[in-house]
Amino acid sequence: MIHSFRSDRETALVRTAKGLVRGYAQDGLLIFKGIPYARAQRFHAPEETESWEGVFQASSYGFVCPLLSNDRPAGELRVPHRYWPMDEDCLNLNIWTPGTDEAKRPVLVWLHGGGYYAGSSIEQLAYDGANMSRFGDAVVVSINHRLNILGYFDLSDFGEGYINSGNAGGDDIIAALRWVRENIAAFGGDPDRVTVFGQSGGGAKVTTLLQSPAADRLFARGIVMSGVIGPMLADAVGSGRELAEAMMAELGLHEVRELETVDYHLLAKAYLKLQPAFEREGKYVGCCPHPNAFYRGDPLRHGFREETKDVPLLVGSVFGEFASFTPAPYDRGRMSEEEQLAALRGFVGEEGLNVLLPLFRTAYPERPLIDLLRLDFVFRAPEIAYLAARSRLNGRTWSYLFNMDQPIDDGGSTPWHCSDIPYVFRNIGLVEHAHGPLADPTLPERIQDQVFESVLAFARCGDPANPAIPAWPPCGPDGEHTLLIDANTRVRTDFDHALIAAQTQYMGPVFERMMREQDVQH
């Protein structure tokens, strides 16, 4: 409910390096939408926008990047979405701020999920930055950038003009951070206290920035939420020449520059027709960052860049991730222990059950045994390795795991991919699932306070310590100290390492079978 609103010639008027922008005031905040931070020709590096005369009206969201195919709305009770007009002119950002003064507030720059191929800055309702800005006294920024083959299609073999086309989307993000560096003080923010944070593909983009020299010193800290995904978002290695030539042949084109102007829908159609065969043959298909002189590559393969050792990180995931989207062939709220054991045996066999069960009971004594089928290892296994590698580089890397069940479906649901986002933004009021039947109806608000205060403490000073949570040491030589966030939020050390290793062995084939039966939300 809007309690106050103002939009006139003098309200929310800010001078940027390129000209005046006007937003609007709402409930104690100044809000700006759709501000252009750069411009770009297809497949080329972003360039500075031209200065403008008059006032840019920043009261409407800008275009979002075109998708390769239309999303089919599904799972909206779990991940409520917002869809928006698409256009390649999509290099724009949104800002929420308590004031355009000299307060030098912490700045949080949100990188959306959807891998490197889909999503937008406003795709999820929970991405709204108003509550984070208002209750955190912070400046919140969300950005759009090029995705899929528009943002990640290596054409470097075709000339200097395409030298980093395989990372054009990453260059867009860097251009946005440069814009923030130059302009955010005028919006009440501190350019020396910029935190980049993102979930899923957005979390992976935080790592991509760490591995990109051009991003150095443009941000002070990072938060990687469910963004260490291993092979699912692996670097696109090799040359894009063969794919480009095949697309030109499919489209009846003769020169690569013609790919720059062909209708996007035809371009996407040609790519989608060719991509499956290229992927089966292990050839370059793009749509992920491309290791080269501008991007070092996955740190688990190439190591973290020494230049980033002073950047503190929060890194974590949720208990169920993708597995919690799968249709449940059982009612976890009504099963006896014997029924749970029988169901588990049917999935992993007697040997797997004998190995996994004691490890699961030790790691998650509070959970019903059947939740073993919902426990994520696809994210968690590479995340354990990521945290170990990062904590060897510095002593300012923190681990967390969002372990709070959500009141949806019979017996409740293990937390799914994206279920922690509303808590981070202090937006549980924007999603239905956080307010279902609970034994303790105050729990969602309490968890929201713990998550939100940790994020804002980290954004302010680079350490998540705050009165809402127990003492939480960073990871180090003495182990991975993970904050488990649930009704009994606590810190445990290396608590699930043996379980995740065994689960990867015994449940890999089970997970692949389950994933074929449902759609993953982003």
Question: What's the SSE blueprint?
Answer:
Blueprint: E1 5-6, E2 13-16, E3 19-22, E4 24-26, E5 29-36, E6 55-57, E7 92-97, E8 105-111, H1 130-136, E9 139-143, H2 148-151, H3 168-183, E10 189-199, H4 201-210, E11 221-225, H5 241-251, H6 264-280, H7 299-302, E12 313-318, H8 337-363, H9 380-393, E13 397-402, H10 421-424, H11 443-461, E14 481-485, E15 490-493, H12 497-515
Parallel strand pairs: 3-6, 8-9, 8-10, 10-11, 11-12, 12-13, 13-14
Antiparallel strand pairs: 1-4, 2-3, 4-5, 5-7, 7-9, 14-15
Helix pairs in contact: 5-6, 8-12
Order of helices and strands: EEEEEEEEHEHHEHEHHHEHHEHHEEH
Instruction: List unreliable stretches of 5+ residues.
Output: none
How helix-rich are the residues, as a percent range?
A: 25-40%
Q: What's the total number of strands?
A: 15
Strand proportion? 15-25%
**Average pLDDT metric:** 94
Radius of gyration: 23 Å
Main sheet: which strands, in order across?
A: 1-4-5-7-9-8-10-11-12-13-14-15
The largest pleated sheet is described as:
12 strands, mixed
